[in-house]
Amino acid sequence: MMEMDERKIRILQAIVDDYISTGEPVGSRTIAKKYNLGVSPATIRNEMSDLEEMGYLVQLHTSSGRIPSDKGYRLYVDRLMMPSIITPQEENLIHSVLNQSIYDLSKIIKSSTELLSHMTKLTCVVKTPSLNKSYLKSLQIVYVDKLKLLLVMVSDSGIVKNAMIRVDEEVDINAVNSINAILNSFLQGVDLKSIDHQVIVELKSSFAGNEKIFDSLMNQIINEMKDDYDSEIYVEGIQNLFSMPEYKDIDKVKNMFNLLEDTKNVNSLLKAESDFNIVIGEENKIIGAKECSVIKATYKLGDRPLGTIGLIGPTRIPYARIVSILTSFVNELNRTITKRLGEE
């Protein structure tokens, strides 16, 4: 069995770097000219043949150069890629986007998908926090008129829900403060999954004389929870695929569109085994993603996971730069979320 010695590693690193940069299969002469490896083209050619036999390289045609296999990219990502640092301008851009109003986290997450797809030139997919894993931080009823109230629900994970409620019985503006006090005394800090029949019965007993108002409010609260019980998924930057040689084939573009339109598939792609994952080609369990790489990270409130951010592209992507951008972004997002939502 052939061993992966230092020379083979240096040659593989040069091939992956060159192929990521140019998108063209790499030959031995190219490596000899562009990279100071101290060996002849003939020696490089023999080593490339060995690397192909070992499964780290693939030769598409007999007369062409070679490209990295999924196994080659995996070794490169795990052991060979050089660290990349984002620019001060990129740091400032991330900071400015994340320091908008963080109290509605969904809006920040949506802006994040746009920024990350722009910075990486990849497709960005983000999974938002779900209400079924959240607690009610505050619930506010705002008087609009005698038969109309505005409901504002805020979860501890930054989800904000607004809804206009029409009531069958006139509401006295002076009673709104009392209604808010009753609702929050029962529901503030409550796990939303635990709002069951018993809680509703106990709460209703505090609305003696205002049962119709209570029914309207609780129906709307329950409906809002059902409508957004699961996480939302934002996708941005699918158009970035059009500029990549790997997606000149229109069928591949269609397959990617179909993949990203399937919520079940996207959830599977974003399923994270740890806080930061790089999944390459055949490592993806979804059939339609076998030619893709997915770099994904979990964002948190303190130590509590809230959702996942994923960057999707072909296996030929600038891994070091993408890892640097996503790491910097998620670290800043985590700091901002914890600072703003963890204040109270």
TrEMBL record:
Task: Show where the Heat-inducible transcription repressor HrcA C-terminal domain sits.
Answer: 107-323
Matching entries from Pfam families are given as: HrcA
Q: Which SUPFAM superfamilies match?
A: GAF domain-like (SSF55781), Winged helix' DNA-binding domain (SSF46785)
Citing just one GO molecular function, the answer is: DNA binding
GO BP annotations, alphabetical order: negative regulation of DNA-templated transcription
The answer to whether the entry has keyword Transcription regulation is yes
- Which key words tag this protein in UniProt? Repressor, Stress response, Transcription, Transcription regulation
Under InterPro entries, the record lists: GAF-like_dom_sf, HrcA, HrcA_C, WH-like_DNA-bd_sf, WH_DNA-bd_sf, WHTH_transcript_rep_HrcA_IDD
This molecule's function is given as:
Negative regulator of class I heat shock genes (grpE-dnaK-dnaJ and groELS operons). Prevents heat-shock induction of these operons.
Q: State the family named in the UniProt similarity comment for this chain.
A: Belongs to the HrcA family.
* PANTHER family assigned: HEAT-INDUCIBLE TRANSCRIPTION REPRESSOR HRCA
HAMAP family tied to this protein: HrcA
Q: What protein am I looking at?
A: Heat-inducible transcription repressor HrcA
Organism source for this protein? Clostridium bornimense
The organism's lineage is: Bacteria, Bacillati, Bacillota, Clostridia, Eubacteriales
